[in-house]
Amino acid sequence: MNIILRSAKVISSQSPFHNKTVDILIANGLIKKIAASITNEEKIEEITLENLHVSEGWFDSSVSLGEPGFEDRETIANGLLVAAKSGFSAIALQPNSFPVIDNQSQVNFVRNKSLGFATQLYPIGTLTKEAAGHDMAELFDMTKAGAIAFGDYNKSIANANLLKIALQYVQDFDSLVITFPQDEKIRGNGVANEGIVSTGLGLKGIPNLAEELQIARNLFLLEYTGGKLHIPTISTAKSVALIKEAKAKGLNVSCSVSVHHLALTDEKLEGFDTRFKVAPPLRTEVDRQALLEGILDDTIDMITSDHNPIDIEHKKMEFDMAKNGTIGLESAFGVLMTILPLEKIIEKLTVGKEVFKIERDIIQEGSKVNMTLFSPEGSGVFTKASILSKSKNSAFLGQKTSGKVYGVINQGKITLA
To answer: Dihydroorotase catalytic domain spans which residues (predicted)?
Structure first.
C-alpha cells in the first residue's frame, strides 16, 4: 500500500506535526515522509479529501457485537467494518456473546474472526465463569490468548471478596479488572433514573446511589489490594467526585463515560422510547454537566460509544421489558463534535490505549501507520441512512451532528466511509 495523503492537518498532541497541515507519504504500512509538499515522482495513488484532518487511530473501550451466538444483532466482520468507517482503528470487544468469552478458546475464536480488517479487535474476557458472578474465570489463560482486561459486561460483582482476590491475582500478570458500578439490590426492578421524569412516567427508578455506593466500595477494595481498576460508563456527578478523590490519593483507577450520557438526559424518556433505555440509565442535566466537566479536567479518562446492538424483538416492546443498549459507533464523533472541543475529543478517543496497554502509533516519519481520517467541519442530522450496523437501535436518530469521518488507515489497509 503506497499512497500520499494531501493537505492533511495533524491533530495529535504527541506528534511533532501537531496542528500542522502536511502531505504524508505512506509505503508498506509505514509513514515514509511528512512534509509541507511531497512530489509524486512515482505516480502513486493520492488521497485528497475536503478539509482533511488526521489523528492517531481512535480506540473504543466498550463495543458489543454479538458473534458468536447473536449474529442476528451483529457479526464480527460487519462490526469491524462499521468501526473502521466510524473512525475507530481499534475496539475492545465486550464478552457478552453466547457463549460468553470466559476461556481461552473463546478468546482465540473472536481474535481469529477479526483477522484481515483495518480495525483491530482486542477481546475483554469475563471476570467470572459464564459471567455469573460466582467463580473467577480462567484469567491467566485468557491473557495468554490475548485478552486485554476482565469484566462481566453490565453486571456488577456483588461478592466483594471475589473482586478483592481478582484485583490481587491480576497483578501477577499486570492485567486490568473492569467492574460495572451498580448495586443490584438498590437498583431492584428499576428501569430509568430515579427522579422527576421517572415519577411522572410511572417508571420504577434507579437512584444515583446504586452506582455511587458500588464505586465507593470498589475504590476501598482497590486501596486495600493495589492493582488496576477500570470503572466503565459512569453516569452521575457524585461518581465523578469519588473517582477524582481516588486519583488524588494515588489509586490506579481509570474510568470512561459513554457518548449518550454526555449528550442526552432522562428527559428523552417522555415518549417511552426504548431506544433510550440504557445501562446505566440516562441521568439529569446536572449529572450530564458534571460528566462534561470530568472530561475537561481529565478526571474521566476516555469516552466510549458503548456500542450495544439489540435486535428489534428485544427493543420494540414495552419499556419495562425491553433490553438495555444503544448502538453508537456511527454517531460517536458527530455527536461529540456538538458538545466538546476537537482536541479534547481526539485525546479521549486515543489515550485509553495506555490504560488497556495497547501500542500507540505516533504520527511521525518511520512510525507504523494507524490513522483516523476526518473533517471537523460541516453539520447534519443522524438518520437511519447513517446506520451501518445490522441492528438499528440508535438513541441518536434525529440528533444534530457536526463534522465527518472519512475512515481509517491501519494494518496495511484503507477503509473509507
So the answer is: 57-237
